[in-house]
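INFO worker-7 received task bundle
INFO bundle size: 2
INFO processing item 0
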Amino acid sequence: MAGRGGGPILVLKDTTKRESGRKVQLGNVEAAKTIADLVRTSLGPCSMLKMLMDPMGGVVMTNDGNAILREIQVEHPAAKAMLDISRAVDEEVGDGTTSVIILAGAMLRAAEKFLKDNMHPTVIIAAYRKALDDAITMSKEELGVSVDVDDRDQVLKIIHSCIGTKLIRAWSDCACSMAYEAVRTVRTEDRGRVEVDIKRYVRVEKVPGGSINDSYAFGGCMLNKDVVHAKMRRRIEKPRVILLDCNLEYKKGESMTNLEISNEADFTRILELEERMVQQMCEDIIRLKPDLVITEKGISDLAQHYLLKNNISALRRTRKTDNNRIARATGATIVNRPDELKESDVGTGCGLFEVRKIGDEYFSFIEQCENPKACTILLRGASKDVLKEVERNLQDALHVARNIMVQPFIVAGGGAFEMALQRGLTEKAKSVAGVQQGPYQAVADALEIIPSTLIQNCGSKPLRVLTELRAKHSQGSTSFGIDGETGKVVDMNSFGVWDALKVRMQAIKTAVETAILLLRIDDIVSGVKKTQGESQ
């Protein structure tokens, strides 16, 4: 910027870097395309694994889009936005993290030619929004198929479609049944509203050793704990359970506490008071005749003695989350003070408490519960790396099962849903007037990236197979998609690959909205933070 005398006027500081205009928009498109190309080979049953090494020397091997992007570090702000959408989709629906990145990259790649032709981003954005609204309407009214959530076989087929692209697919029958049983166990209904809280009430315990086929799900809880005293019972049928979140020991001072004692009798008196306090706590517990006491805090040796005398087993220092799950499984109430215990606080819903040794460690099982609204999945496997990847795959399966329970609608998988949307939007594009028609059609064409990627990843020729797929959809056969293992066009109704509507719709909505967000950016200013000298 020039002043009156012709000299430049500096508005921004020398340390500030600014980029603006078309260069920024095209740079954002390139960054998004790079991230999309990074995970593109990780889509479908024939997907490739990525090996990622962290600075500490740890190795992660996975084909999960969110897990890959979570491990890499990027500089470009648009690339960071792409990483965020993968995380957002993973938190919302738990699956489709690779698809959303590929779709977002395709949407921005489609907008690139319009930007180069000097079309204003606002026009492109308006067309993208219109296409998204039409796609949502079409999905709900024409393509979504309702499903009976109590039909085990049908729900297992949908979960199988999710697991079919993962490492765990070799043990898919075992994994699908575990995910289904876990979600059915924790499912609750309140005033007609279905709630499935996987994060809080489904626990996955990984124990190295054995085979993945040895894994199973059960209604109840599993703790990596042994009873506090060697002579306490390790197997109790139909136990009465008390849950505490307080210490069963004398109360210690919160900070440094000093006592001045003038004679020996006072010291003896202090010890007696401490013992009396512990004895009173134990008497309050014993009064309710429990078989098992579980506390989040410590249990002193004296308390262990009183509990053992009354044939009561005890576990200590459990996690808060585990205590909450035990409370939900057994019907017990977590109590803060033993003197406030009532009969209604005792949990009687547990069928069996047993301590078992797996490998070199002891695990406490609380199982065979009457109405356990909490579930544990015990995973066995060859190594920790395998178990971590199996857990990631299983989390996707759990989320798919939850999505079906919450929103019981499905669509054809294998790229059939995206091709059906592409066909519908292409027809609607003919009625879009003015310059918006081009970007509207570009959204439809960008949806073909999913079937195209599935074909490429299994080694087939995209052009020939995609032409055959287009021909099937032009004849009105909207259920035809790609067999991800052979690369051939198949009817998904008979092939049995289905996706949850919620997952597919979330992927498309997030991809288009991210493309709109990045297209709106026309200025990047970096180095705006204060320097160290100024801040002082």
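INFO item 0 finished
INFO processing item 1
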Amino acid sequence: MRRNKQWDVNKAMLLSRLFQFLHCAGKACVIPFLTLYLRYLGLTASLTGIIMGTKHFINLAWAPLSGYFAKHYNKRRVVILSSLLCSIGAGLLLLLIPPADKATMTRYCNISAFAGFGLPKTAEDTINYSQLGNTTMTVHAFTTLISPTALSKINTKHIATAGAGQTLNDAILATAAASKHEVKRIAHRQSHRENHKNEEGANPDIPDNSDSKRSVRSRSLKTGSAHGQKPTDVVLEVQHQLFFLVLMAVALWEVLSAPLEWTVDDGLYEYLDFVDATDGYSRQWIWGYLGAACSACGVGLLVSNLDCLLNVHIHRSAVHFYCYAILITLTLLTGTFLPIHVNRKQEQTNKVLKALHLISNDGRATLCSLTAFIVGAVGSTFENYLFWQMQDKGSSEFYMGASIAIKLFAEILLSFFSSKILKTLGQSGTVALGMLCMAVQCLYYSFLWSPWSVLPIQSLNAFSNGALWWALNAQCEDVSTPGMERSVQRVFQALSLGLGAGIGSLAGGFIASRFSLEVLYRAAAVVLVIWSVAFLIVQSRIPRQKRVNYSRLLAVDNSDLSDTETDQERDWLVKAMKDEKENNSW
């Protein structure tokens, strides 16, 4: 006689939490910093917006489709493991794409390090002295960047005796009083020499030892000049070539990684539902947030303490991709033991279409779906260009990672009071409060003044993202019929993180290139304030039609009822029908 299979729910929950922790930690190593790496490669804000918008659109279409095929053919574990394995290689593929200009790779390295010597503090004022921006650069590296002729004009008495292990910052501090103006003048002279080198390919002071490995821009300038093209036209052509290479690499990466989260989520939920243990499913996101917060802060601290260039051709941002590959490899090992329930029963109805039908037939749900779209569009400006704004103010990767950790920890802490907040403010009030907090964040981002100034405002993310989505999910539960809650929530997430984020990336990139990042964030703040007021006005005029979700009512514990209640008050079905009648008659 065949023995019944034993289901270890505690072990399954532990494995799923570990998987969630490692996977989100791996993503946090590189995804928040991806647009920063595209900036290092030399792409503009508009081109970066197109790439990120394409990434969101691919996820919007391919994630549910691949999840459906994985479930239909019972190949979820194969899809999960294949997606993890292939995404490692696809992510590292970006490191093979050369930058448009080598100067862009070092332009933003610790710009504020030379602020005390009269050098510019923001990225807009950079010259090629930015190669000197890393305070851990040794004296030998400094002397190789500046020509011997120019170096001899500085008071190098202390620099010459500093020793090979002493940093450039220590050496310059010893002679700052006598050499402040000389350092500034030589840096400007170095800039003119580098510009002359880019145009004519010659520099008498600095020998060129990398002729065989020049950047894409240098080769194209030489070829373009031979054919009579203008230098500006050649630069644009090189940038477009770089754009298409990066676009194909990012698109491939997203195609390979998009099926993962949808498939894992479906498999875990059906497993827990089969063993009647879905109570722990709603708290799985906390472990992902913990992993992302620790990973982003840790990798930011690591990268900010490295030299700008690990070697002649590898920028320190490559460490983000290396850490991503390591953590996803650990996730791959965990995924081989991930609990997945094989459901032999095929669904006859399409839940996505049914969820769209439920939303379209409810005025409040339709209004909330439009809100999710707008929030996703504005949120994409945070993801794509906030680190650019921080970098222009001299922030290092450590401050960027810390900003991610603060907002995630704030959201986790506030989640323990989510029920009380929703009960006090109501769904409409919570949504409006979340949008107003997001507007305050946008306005604050446009006035950043120092490398650390972004950190205090990140705690508002608990309301602008956490509380807002709790209210939207509560609306999903109100409009859903039994068994449709997750499908309605996924439609809201697709409208926000897929369609909204994609369109927001395209529009945000155009505005940032045409105007500035400050204008982008101020415009986003105005849109949020206007929509929050309109949301409250329209929501108050739409009658509330809450459906009775009998599957949730059955889960009510009868012990919560007091002994003084009458028999009619004890009957939850009578109470539910009474509430439904009152809501529909209003």
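INFO item 1 finished
INFO post-check item 1: The chain has a mean pLDDT of 77.
INFO post-check item 1: Residues 154 and 182 are 6 Å apart (CA to CA).
INFO worker-7 idle
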